């Protein structure tokens, strides 16, 4: 802390971004910080350094982590740009990491523009490889710089995976539906019946590949027989959420301004899913219970009658000012390494354009289905994370085997590990640590036996007369 407060910090870009995210004026922020609007204007233009007093007032007024605020750049932003510049088309430039960090920290708008251009380039490249062309001019149609899932993922991440409006509405609704006299499914079913909506469980073949479908004409919610009890509860909560708060969801979506109809629909579904989870696991009660149970996910599943994946996803949303939970990140992958879900309540260098590091044991969890495996990992910036992973069944899965399983990885910075049940009994002061990295082409960890490609900024040192344990040896 002392070292952070002693050096001069020019945080103009971060202050301006924070103010815009909060939706407040310079005058309002100046009042909150106890400074004049003209002085705040100088801070935002980097004409004055942020003093220790202002930094502490920022942390107190907006419930911020001083370390995160005073960092030169978000780890995720640097990692994203690093992946872009690791592309072979930039191989002759050899852009050092400190220059990438400067762009991410001092010009986040430019950094975002570079990422969008690169996404557009990848889209054009993919379409060219597939032979998909626009008939008018013979060029690939790349009017969309990102896919709907990429756009929605980035939007949710920009909101820190937390939506205060939805949580507040969910707590009110949960208070109506959750009572000692009825289980949630029974109370919610009765509530839906007052709106003329009936629930029916049907054979899986009737829904033809779906696990939930709402018949608008007959006002019937059809649920597949293969859904677990937790799955049925979530499906019912989803219907309650979309029935009661459709206008609220539509308002949030309108403000987000998705670029097209598919993205709009996907964002709508994602927000309804968030609201459904918040109904089943109301913020205040879920946060308090999580703290009391030391974030034991199986215990939370039992307490709230929810699934392992539902609880993990909810844990990554506990960012309410004044009542924050452990800032988890969450990742879901299949046995082939394809990422189908990733959320972060805190900064973690997820690979934006690639997969995960094979040294992270989320992949090894497929060897021990249903069992939690823990691991302490260290990223290239020397930050350590406590992680744990286990497999879950796909929603509505009817078959066994690898294709029916997914792996859920969870983690947080080491400073929070002592609050977790999974760290009990471990020597956190002197732990066994596994070094991991981002995509192989930007990872400069030497001697990695699982490396799939050489780092773009290093020179290969192939020996004609010897073979190293690590593929692609390179000069440091």
Describe this structure in words.
The structure is a single chain. By secondary structure, this protein is of the alpha+beta class. The protein contains 18 helices and 11 strands. The protein has helices spanning 2-6, 12-22, 26-33, 37-44, 52-62, 66-70, 75-85, 97-106, 108-130, 148-158, 164-177, 184-193, 229-244, 246-256, 261-280, 283-292, 297-304, 308-315, and strands at 198-202, 212-215, 220-224, 319-320, 323-324, 329-333, 339-344, 373-378, 384-393, 405-413, 434-435. The strands form 3 sheets. It has a 6-stranded mixed β-sheet. Strands 1-3-2 form a 3-stranded mixed β-sheet. Strands 4-5 form a two-stranded antiparallel sheet. Helix 13 (229-244) crosses helix 15. The radius of gyration is 24 Å and the shape is globular. Residues 1-6 and 132-143 have low confidence and may be disordered.
